[in-house]
Amino acid sequence: MATSNTQRSERNPDKTRQVILQAAFMEIYRKGYQGMRLDSVLAETGLTKGALYHHFSNKQSLGYAVVEDVIQPMMASIWEEPLIAADDPLAALAEVIETLPDKKPRELILFGCPLNNLIQEMSPQDSGFRERLDTVMSNWHATTEKALINAQEKEFIRADIDCHETATFIMAALEGCIGLAKSAQSVDRLRSCLRGLTQYLQSLEN
Amino acid sequence: MATSNTQRSERNPDKTRQVILQAAFMEIYRKGYQGMRLDSVLAETGLTKGALYHHFSNKQSLGYAVVEDVIQPMMASIWEEPLIAADDPLAALAEVIETLPDKKPRELILFGCPLNNLIQEMSPQDSGFRERLDTVMSNWHATTEKALINAQEKEFIRADIDCHETATFIMAALEGCIGLAKSAQSVDRLRSCLRGLTQYLQSLEN
DNA sequence: TACGTTACATACCAGTTAGTATGTTTGTCA
DNA sequence: TGACAAACATACTAACTGGTATGTAACGTA
Fold first, then answer.
1. Contact assignment for B121 to A116 by CB distance below 8 Å
2. Separation between Cα atoms, residue B159 and residue B188, nearest integer Å
3. How far apart are CA A136 and CA B198, in angstroms?
4. Burial of A112 by CB count in 10 Å (0-12 exposed, 13-18 middle, 19+ buried)?
5. What is the Cα–Cα distance from A96 to B34, expressed in whole angstroms?
6. Which one, of A114, A125, A117, A136, lies nearest residue A26 by Cα?
7. What's the pTM?
8. How many of the other CB atoms lie within 10 Å of CB of B87?
9. What is the mean pLDDT of residues A85-104?
10. Is A131 helix (H, G, I), strand (E, B) or coil?
11. Residues 6+ apart with CB under 8 A from A155
């Protein structure tokens, strides 16, 4: 009964799994899925092949797990939580977008959006990735659309606006801004580009 | 003196180089630079290692050449030529954007934009790629900005618009739309998303 | 406390892939 | 026409990389 719960490293399979997932995520974020090397992931965690292949059946399933267990919750925490119960959903949306460069400016400019990176790389090549990534996109779209509908009901934005289509465009424009900043590797360029998006958001106002 | 100029395959180094470049471009377009295999390129062309390493010093320089000699001219032909001398630059811009899904719908949805793909994959990893891709982006931005300034001078769009920033946002939004369509693999979704962009363009009008 | 299972570690393998060394043919030019 | 360089082809290698086979220590459990 004397289980040492001091999160030390005696034996903790759940934590081990998370450690692998997190390291794999960072490697994929930096090098892409195809560029990610299992050996690099293991070197960073201090674990070995045995541990990795105990928790994941192969490289592909590790990649899938990164989408489902890392990227999906990450997107939810960034978007769902701030938007779900905001008084002014449009303002909340603009707030999230504008403060994005402040969170992790260096990583965001260097490596872009983890979700978008994987979509661009893997969607055409692997249907398993495509379906999982599409699910994350659908969830994101749903929360964005809900926020817009909510804002429309509260008459913050015009009644003639197609919330479904607008949500799609906002997502696209945002990913586009982040992606464009990557070629220039400049925070200023990111902010400048995002200003165009906030202007667009303003053009929706009632 | 009897050089058979019937473009047959006696010996034609320039053509050989172009054949390699074109095959490499398609492989990169489909699999990414890291996913592109020299053997696949050679298999498609019917050539061998000797030919490839005679024209290019290594994989990297082949990748660089694809950016400079294939992607750069491709972007120029799509953007510069239609916009450079249009009577109504804003309408011409909207025209290019709207007709984009009609050109190569299948490839565009499956594999996205060749330029954006390479930026997202290679900019963080290889400064040689980054600089060359940034040059292409700068040229594209210059022509877009010129079109906007031209439209502003002809009073097609409002005088208070920052053409530099707006050009950046248009590029970002367009790449975003194309990228988003990839996860859904749907032409409808691309068109729907582009409608948001054309709406934005309309909001610039005088 | 013996036993089986989980959670790893270690050692190794086979296929892939960029790159090289060398040979051969074609065109050019003195 | 003979020599020389350009334009390839062929054969090979070394390193990487995902995956496997096997061993072992921790943990729950009857």
1. no
2. 34
3. 26
4. buried
5. 34
6. A114
7. 0.94
8. 9
9. 94
10. helix
11. A206
